[in-house]
Amino acid sequence: MCESDSQFETCLQALKVPQNSKSLFKVLVNIRKELEWPKDRQNILKVRTEGCLGQLVSILQMPQRYIMDVCLSILGNCMMDKNCSRDLVGAYNIISPLSHILKHHQKSDSINGRIFRIIGNMCQHKKDQWANLIIDKKPYIVTHTVELLKKSSADDLPPDEMYSEATLSMAIRALRLLLNCRTVIPLVKDFGVLKAVGSLFIKVSTEWQEHKTKEYLLNNIIRLLHDYSRYKYYNSIMELRNTDNGNSLLHLTNVLLLSPKKIVKIVMNFIKVSQLQSELPVTEICDKFMDEIVSKYLNPEGTDTSNNTGMSSGYLECVQCICYLLEHPANRNLDRCGKCVPLLIKVLDSFQEPNTAQLKCCILLVSTLNHCQYDDSLIQEQLKHNVIEVLLRKLQWIFGTSGALKENHNALRTSKNGNKKRVNRNSQSTTRRKRPRESICRESPNTTLVASPSTSSSAVNEVRQQASVRRQCSASPSSSDEEYAASRYERSPSPCSSIASDEAIFRALSPQRCPSSPANVDDEELSDSDDYSPVCSDVESDKNCSSENEEDEGKEDQKTAELLNDMDCDDEEESEGKKSPAVPEEASIVNLKSLLVTEIAILISSFARVNPIIPQLGTEEMLIALLNCSSHFKATVSAKINTVDIVVKILDSAEYLIPLMKSKFIETMYDLMKVQHSQNCNKCSDYKDVGKIILRQITTLAESGVGMGEIAHALLRRRCQTRQQVTLVIPYILRDKALLARYMLYCDGLDVLLRLLKHEWDMKKRAIKSLCAMASDMLNIANPIDVALNLSPTRTIKDKYKLAEDCEHVVTFKLDDGSVLQADRQFLSDRSDFFRGLLSGHFRESSEDEVRLSHVKKKSLGCLFLLLKTLDDKSETVDVKQDLDTLLDVLVLSDRFLLSHIRESILNSVQKFWVSARTVPVIYRWSLESGTNLLRVECVAYALVADISDAERFQMFNSLFQAGCG
């Protein structure tokens, strides 16, 4: 080997000097050793700049075959450089000597292999269109190549016509690289390339099945078939079906697992131009994939048995190929690929870990099921195999099974400039505020929920493009569009191998599976399939050719190994400016979950249009899961479409009404409308709007003719449990008061609710909420505090009672505890009829200075005298600085002593300042024990309509029940 550049240049200079064959062979061998591609690219350029290409072409005319072998090997490496190719073809017309050599050495394995390699390396420079030149000027090269493949496909070959696997692989590669938009028809129709390759494919695939040999050659044949299938030329199908050895398309199934993606892409390309369903073995391929998945990756229970990511490369390829087959409408029927649908549902259900790989696979599977939504038989097949339950489990897999919609959040409002600000609760007025009835009332029918920007049609289309795998193969370029044709095929050959890494696996399962177009290869490293050491003998040359070819073909494939991992990238040869957007590989779990949720929502939306209705869609779990997908509830993971609209669409059928009334779904929607923060909180407003929309739709169903009949039948004819469940939610959904009265009074709905108050605590709480909803929303019962606030202005009394110093007629009241209280006899007689009769009438006490009063407390009596002194004869609202017990005792005394105006004043004062969730049970118990029945109705009214939390309300009612209410 040359040890320096000067030695290599010395060898190049020696080519220009006439030498004997032995010396020339030695020079050629030394040159060949220094021309490894792409490592020695500079040496190849030196061969061109030193003007040695012409000498190499002239050497081909020498009769010694061992010299010809080495020279062809050198020229093959030089052909990797496009400028060298142009000189060799344009200036030295190398095509003619190559054709001449083939004619005289038709049976030489080494020479044929090297010439085929030169042809392939020459034709991979697509812009130069050397393939067109060869077919037009030297068609013998193509004819000879085709004839060689035909002979090799025969079963019994004479020894002199048996070619090595490397030579056959180079012939296949040359025919593949000769292909372009202008040569496809002559290659297929005139030269019979596919018929010859098909015959060889049958023979090689049979040998591979039996002995697992010639896998490299078989992969090259599959690559050729894939490239030819891209041109949508119907004669290609006919040629492959009518080979000398039979229908070669049927043998695709036999080698399916060798290169599943390539074979599926061949079928999918041909299916666009096929005329009969029987022309392509689609059903057989689907069955093969199904058997592989079931036998190797799924156990009888349908759960995954592969590694902890849930996927091996073989598993992925099988699942992905089935999904790709279902992309084409022709395959979406029960006879062809319909049997795959149950398996895909089972595979989808088998994923249990929400990692990146499994989420991407789930997106692919759900997206594929989405493509089947326009075929009624496939929809029924999905429903038959419980796809709704599987989708529900996937949603619960993402959001959990708690069923909670509301999230704990701080009060947020949007400022004028669009920034969110926290609401300062302390800035709110400390005045007791009205209960905001509007927070749980229904909007008018023309009010709609304002959709978020993500719910626009453009966003939906964008998501469908991201999650969809439907990619149509572009048609072949027209024969007149030279620039397009050149840029379309300006690339390195792509591999046939399957996915080789987890990174490629994740990319393959990405919802957007078409990668960026490969880079321009004019100035990039090119590779071919010849890296052997040149020797003289044919036998050694053949042997080395095989090993070298394999190594160099691997180099050729390495550069673009990831470009064809995706199932649908037949458009990968487009120019650089037409790159398809791709989901970034480092997509977060959150983004993947959002994509999966979107695809599931789209699929469920399609099921909502099915007639008859699907009962599983109207369950509480499904509706809650769909609402959880909405951006109104989940800020991080949410669908890109408005799932609230999907729920409304589902609720358009009255058949879901009674099942939903028997569940807690309606009650949950009613709770959504309860504002946790102020009206300025955006999150609370979202919850409220969603609740209004859902309940308005249910109200429409309930007040329709069918709905009214169903509810009446449930109340009158159904068993007790159903009557209870239906009655509990009637106040939440009815807006017609006459209808409510009919159900509550004539259908015994009110009796059912009142009886539930005596049940266990859970049913009692639900009955309390229902009664409160009916009282506030339908019966319009006023809050006692609101009523008191609308009365006359409050008069504050801070003084304490004491006898005036100038009092002339003092009377002393002696109480039960022995205490005494003095008062002005004349003042009492003037202001109270009771005391006038007692102190100035015909009673014994009228002549006594000390009067005994029973069941009276000094503090209460003093407060009464103070009020009697302060207030006029008419009642007015007062704020007496006394405790609640004293005020209640004053109420009893004012009723006992016939002081009606004082009683009304104290009643207003207690109602305005003392009624609360904590004091209502106390006041109610006092009303019962005192026998006055004062404030009793007000206590119940407050308990029903007060703006307090459910926990406070339940505790208050529990205390009321203990006090004797109900």
Automatic annotation (TrEMBL):
GO terms for cellular component: cytosol. Residues 807-870 form the BTB domain. Residues 521-531 have a biased composition (Acidic residues). Residues 411-497, 512-561 are annotated as: Disordered. Signal peptide: none annotated. Residues 444-479 have a biased composition (Polar residues). Coiled coil: none annotated. GO terms for biological process: anatomical structure morphogenesis. It holds the Pfam family ARM_ARMC5. This is BTB domain-containing protein. It comes from Callosobruchus maculatus (Southern cowpea weevil).
